[in-house]
Design a protein that fits this description.
It contains eight helices and eight strands; from the N terminus they run αβαβαββββαββαααα. The chain is an alpha+beta fold. The chain has a domain of 129 residues: 2-Layer Sandwich (Beta Polymerase, domain 2), CATH 3.30.460.40. It comes from Streptomyces musisoli.
């Protein structure tokens, strides 16, 4: 589950300058250090969790500021363990080069897609997105500072706070990507932890996010916004 509309949907993206990644090195496709053989879990969700733990441990050891995002972040906040698509990590735009170098040193193949707001790698056979722009805006230090340190299948790591997580999902809605059905169960899982006034102030005047917020009110998932004088 990728922020900004998985799978790399055509969204308006912020300009992130100063990114000059080195080309991929040969043979960098293993996930575990030293290319140690690893038995892959049969369960897809567990495989995604194993990939998340491995990447999180690598970033923690290197001291890179980051926060877990996407469906695994929802799981960490108490949501469903049924995970889809991939694992997502939010990093600062200025750290993209350093993070890419760290992952390559750990034996991972880091790919630079046409989209200018993320990097991609693979771990335990699962896609991992390293994202430096969420909700059409660059990831900020304040956003990472608001992250909650939570256990992810027994490994502690910073996880986007519920308000930032939901804001990033709702703000991704547009005329080209408007899958309310996939986000509705996510909102149900974390609704009591979200500051909905902040979410409304950040994206409630945009047509698609406003329509989704209205749907949440009609379904009694969230309280209706009081009329303003």
């Amino acid at each position: 589950m990728t922020q900004n509309g998985e799978e790399t949907s055509p969204l308006r993206r912020p300009e992130v300058t100063g990114l000059h990644l080195a080309p991929d090195g040969p043979g960098r496709q293993a996930c575990t250090p030293m290319h140690e053989p690893t038995a892959l879990p049969q369960d897809r969700s567990q495989a995604i969790l194993e990939a998340t733990k491995q990447i999180g441990a690598i970033l923690k050891r290197a001291g890179h500021p980051f926060a877990l995002a996407g469906s695994v972040a929802v799981y960490a906040h108490g949501g469903s363990r049924y995970l889809q698509h991939d694992a997502d990590f939010a990093i600062l735009p200025d750290d993209a080069d350093a993070v890419a170098g760290t992952l390559r040193k750990a034996g991972l193949d880091v790919r630079v897609p046409p989209e200018d707001w993320l990097l991609k790698t693979t771990c335990h056979g699962q896609n991992v997105d390293i994202i430096f722009a969420l909700a059409h805006q660059p990831v900020t230090r304040d956003m990472l500072d608001r992250a909650h340190v939570l256990p992810v299948d027994s490994v502690l790591m910073p996880v986007l706070c519920p308000t930032d997580l939901i804001h990033s999902l709702i703000s991704a809605f547009s005329e080209h990507y408007c899958d309310f059905g996939s986000v509705l169960p996510v909102v149900r899982a974390v609704r009591e932890k979200v500051d909905w006034d902040v979410v409304r102030a950040a994206c409630g005047d945009q047509p698609m996010p406003a329509a989704f917020l209205f749907l949440l009110e009609r379904l009694n998932v969230i309280d209706a916004q009081e009329d303003q004088p």
